[in-house]
Amino acid sequence: MALEKITRIAGRAVHIPGNDIDTDRIIPARFMKCVTFDGLGEYLFYDMRRNADGSEKPHPLNDPAHKGAAILLSGVNFGCGSSREHAPQALQKHGIRAVIAEGFAEIFLGNSTTLGMPCVSASRGDIERIAAAVKADPATEVVIDVANQTVSFAGQTIAVSVRDSARDALVNGRWDPIGELIEGAGNAAKVASQLRYMSA
Amino acid sequence: MPKTLFEKVWEAHAVRTLASGQTQLLIGTHLIHEVTSPQAFGMMRDLGLKVAMAHRTFATVDHIVPTDQVSEPYADPLADAMIKELRRSCREFGITFFDRSTGKQGIVHIVGPEQGITQPGTTIACGDSHTSTHGAFGAIAFGIGTTQIRDVLATQTMALGKLKVRRIEVNGRLSPGVYAKDVILHIICTLGVNGGTGYAYEYAGDVFDRFSMEERMTVCNMSIEGGARVGYVNPDETTFAYLKGRPYSPKGAEWDAAVARWRAVASDTGCAYDDVVRIDAADIAPTVTWGINPGQGLPITGTVPDPARAKTPDEKASIEEALAYMKLRPGAPIKGTRIDVAFLGSCTNGRLSDFQEVARFIKGRRVAPGVKAIAVPGSQAVGLLCAELGIDKVFRDAGFEWRSAGCSMCLAMNPDKLVGDQLCASSSNRNFKGRQGSPTGRTILMSPIMVAAAAVTGSVADAREVFGVSAN
What we know:
The complex is a heterodimer of chains A (200) and B (472). Chain A has helices at 23-26, 46-49, 86-94, 106-114, 124-136, 164-171, 178-183, 185-193; strands at residues 8-11, 13-15, 71-73, 98-101, 119-121, 142-145, 150-153, 156-159. In chain A, a hairpin with a 2-residue loop joins strand 7 and strand 8 (156-159). Chain A has a single domain (8-174), classed as Aconitase, domain 4 (Alpha-Beta Barrel), CATH 3.20.19.10. In chain A, 31% of the residues lie in helices and 14% in strands. Chain B has two domains: 5-265, 2-Layer Sandwich (Aconitase, domain 3), CATH 3.30.499.10; 289-466, Aconitase, domain 3, CATH 3.30.499. Chain B has helices spanning 5-13, 38-47, 77-93, 108-115, 146-155, 180-191, 206-210, 213-221, 237-243, 253-265, 313-326, 346-349, 352-362, 380-388, 391-398, 448-457, 463-466; strands at 14-17, 23-26, 29-32, 57-60, 96-98, 123-126, 140-143, 157-160, 164-171, 199-204, 230-233, 275-280, 287-289, 297-299, 341-344, 372-375, 401-402, 423-426, 442-445. In chain B, the strands form five sheets. Chain B has a five-stranded parallel beta sheet with strand order 5-4-3-6-7, sandwiched between helices. Chain B starts with a helix and ends in a 6-residue tail after the last helix. Classes of the chains: A alpha/beta (200), B alpha/beta (472). Chains A and B meet through helix 4, helix 6, helix 7 and helix 8 of A and strand 1, helix 2, helix 3, helix 5 and strand 8 of B.
């Protein structure tokens, strides 16, 4: 199964400011009652975006100016908390193709990479600069060069970072590791045979 | 060269290095539940994959099982469908399923240890971030996403980057009224909710040496709340005594061989750590949260932070956001905050010793008028032991609702939920916005004994005062 080489992501951006945005906020637990991920996009940040009666609250994702944004901007420790893959799935199903933040929680970063959604780390100042450009003109095209670890927008280019292993997997089209893991099955069986507790 | 337990377990399970530089790591034990696995089984079917080592995966239901209804079909058709889906998948792929009919069902992180499946020197993965709980036994246990569940089902391996190791020593003696929950809340408040990103935490020192397995599990459980994907305690006599005679523990001559292996897997004297943090047990007070993440906590004698006194603009913004959500006043004592609900249970504090300890104090006391108090044993086995010891009766007599096993109001995927902006004194692990089922519901995390004190007084209280706990 050949995977897409994810080297460049271009699109409009939406800024959801704040630190420690947890996966319960990204997708509340009650929407995890599903046996497929298909419908999750609709519930992204649900309780931040909607009142109890379903009416919309002011939120960047409800702003028509940011409709169709492909890149999400945020703060420190994005995606902390629960290991639910429903969080990156909801982002992706909603149309988000990359997240630029000051930092990511470990499990979220792994889950996102496996879905081919880059987690890009940038400094506070640089994220604020992108956010300012997007605020001034929501149509600003933001371009992430995954291989070279840069982000370009409104005539500026900044240096960012993508974890080495994730970058390699993304740009070489091996972000879903299942093929490689299956190739290693023979080795795995050998290692397992040396571990007493794994015997049948 | 002396090595940490983490390095030894990693090396024993490393299959090979992948092109990305990550390691293909063998996962010895895979635990699954009804919420994060159905999609993985769907992926398996779509790709035509078979389960590689079905005897190393164990399933149970915990996240959405109702705790007030035992017979199926459950009132919530979605929950009913998910549980039936897991049952079907386990049958199709030949996986052991601790269903409710077996008497072994419960929260996955409570079932693994009590069945003796969780063992030292092993690797464990589960689609739940609190999988770090199993580290209490000297296992390396990872919370994983659903695609990784597919990977483990299909290959019994997954792709992972190696973590650094931070040793956290807590030395000295805990004061009376201070529990394992206070230790981990204190650690998270000290190191931050993302202080552990990229690390495995090795917990050690006098306090951990003396802790029971259940106390060690409480601490390891919340490692992820401090950003650490893995937390562990080196195995010792306490570990071996706990495991002896459990259903899946080695037997006879196998037992002695296993203990020898387990002893050898502990971190070596003189091994190098990427970081070491030392905490004085005497500095740890009964700790409660005031905010919307587990790092926003303070001693029960403390006052709610004032954004005006914040040291950075970030800190100011986060205090303001938390106080607006929690409806707390800056500078007010946290003690005395009125509560609506008291929840005792979860993978953090839903074990026998949690209920036993609380029962000692609530005997003869009553839940305050207007407070809804629920006690949810973490497993059917815990519920049964509580019944044998008369603990369930103590709780019922005090005015608690005594439920059947599940995750319940920790994440409120079942009918146990907060309503509106109710405030809950909770023995669970997360106080995120909306965590307990109402988008405006509020959570204050604390130890079981502090939940009991809040339940009987109707407000956040110092259990040492309420129950007359003092140095004996």
